[in-house]
Amino acid sequence: MDTTCKPQLMNCLMMNESTPPVIETHSLTKTYKGVQALQPLDLVVREHSICGFLGPNGAGKTTTIKLLLGLARPTAGTAQVFGKDIEKENDEILRRVGYLAQDPRFYEYMTARETLRFTARFFYTGPRAEIERRISETLDLVGLSDKADRPVKGFSGGERQRLGIAQAQVNYPDLLILDEPAASLDPIGRKDVLQVMEKLRQHTTIFYSTHILDDVQRVSDTVIILNKGALVAQGPIEDLLAWGQAESFTLTVKGDSAGVEARLRSQPWVTGIDTLSRNGRVCWQIRVSDPDLAEAQLPALALAGGVTICEFGRKTQNLENVFLSIVEESNHDY
Amino acid sequence: MTTKIISMTPTRERGWKMGLGNMLAKELAAWYRTRRWWIQCLLWLVILNVAGIDLNIRGDQTVQQAGSGFLTMAGFGLSIAAISMAQDSILGEKHSGTAAWVLSKPLRRPAFVLAKLFAIGLGILVTGIMLPGAVAYFQLTHFGLQGLTPVGFAGAMGLVALHTLFYLTLALMLATLFNGRGPVLGISLGILLAGLMILFFANTPELLLAILPWRLVMPLGGGPLVGYLALGAPLPTLTPIIATAVWCVLFTGVAIWRIRREEF
Fold first, then answer.
1. Is A182 found in the same domain as A257?
2. Phi, psi of A106 (to 5 degrees)
3. pLDDT tens column, A37-74
4. Domain span at residue A272?
5. B263–A73: do the CB atoms touch at under 8 Å?
């Protein structure tokens, strides 16, 4: 199995090298009872970035996060957070990190304020008034001020998630690690969380896993994609979107399209075609290996086949398309 | 933001103590800032002092029998409580995910276990040993038990505390080794109940009586050691006391070793 990424998807490693890395892993590997949850992983997250960490369920995202936090031990490889080794200097790392778990759990009998006070006391001894002021500020930030003195026991999933975000950043962390921060939030809650993340980026590096690709596209500047425990892509989000656009075209035609489709498929630079027929028109999503050649030849091939071209152009990509095509492609590689 | 950070004083605990103060404060608050402490006080006063002494003396037992029964009942009952609290404290947090949450903060794993050990130990010491012990001393003196001295009785209650500590550390250790409640409760309650069962067998191996805490509170091998201490008599042997203390240290050491290897 090829565990390396396609070179064009790995450009993040070369980008922004002047910005110091906050997270760096070198062949980080995790095996649970003979099952490789994480294949040798080399990733870099740079300072002040908002890095979306994507992958299907079971891709190894949570495992990676737990390894970085010292909640699990690597089977092989190393990783540094703020240049500190995750195994040997875990104490120093935890002092500068805020973490929200995928399914945040707190002591049910504590109120939201008590939970934040308990969290803050791991980082600060006082003064009490300053700690209380910070707690109030944090509660306000996540919109829980009116529920601050209610026990967590009665909180909804969304309120727990907000409390999770609050406790993760009560210590002004230099790195926020959020495992599915928008899960179980309604659209307004999601929007609020994204706003909080954008506010925090001035001071904090944010590394977060999510399945909500719209959110990633809205707030992230870099993206890392895992599939089946292996890194399949990492890079600035605009490069990733451009990569998808460059390799895909949309061609909509009227007329007898069967012969044209066969001719298109026979071209060596055509790597795949998805077909959609509607209202007497046929729309092809054509993936190609040579975009320049495709741009020049696709219309000519269609016209030569006797069809009328209604629409032709490079496919406008969103992250979801890119994500799906990268993951599907990597599945074929295994 | 930077000024806000400077305006708060960072914690200074390092090494194995990192986070211990905060975790211990939280564990103690779960006892003393809730109804738990007075419910425990009331429970042990009713079980040990009212049922264990008062009702027995008003029944057909002598004061000496009631006093001995109180110490055995305290050793047995408090150990069950310690097992129950210790296993729930660790396993409950492992299962609910709160252990993973707190351990993602600046909290060392040994501190996590020790905070629970100290808090449960102190909670039982205050509510189940010191308070009922003090009340029992006055009850037994009031009913005219001869030879009872405050120091001797405090020493006897100390042995009850050591007996309880054995089961507390055992259950804590087992809760770090296993993920299910079955093995934790089965093994620790099994050892405790075995101490009762062997009362019915004539020939218990001396080695077992020497290395396990049974003789501390159970009427085995010439009577419970707590009885000797309470009445100011010389102890026939120190071996079970020393062995129990060694077990407590060993169990705590294994619990700390295991929690450091745990993956969440």
1. no
2. -130, 170
3. 999 999 999 998 999 999 998 999 999 999 999 999 99
4. 247-333
5. yes
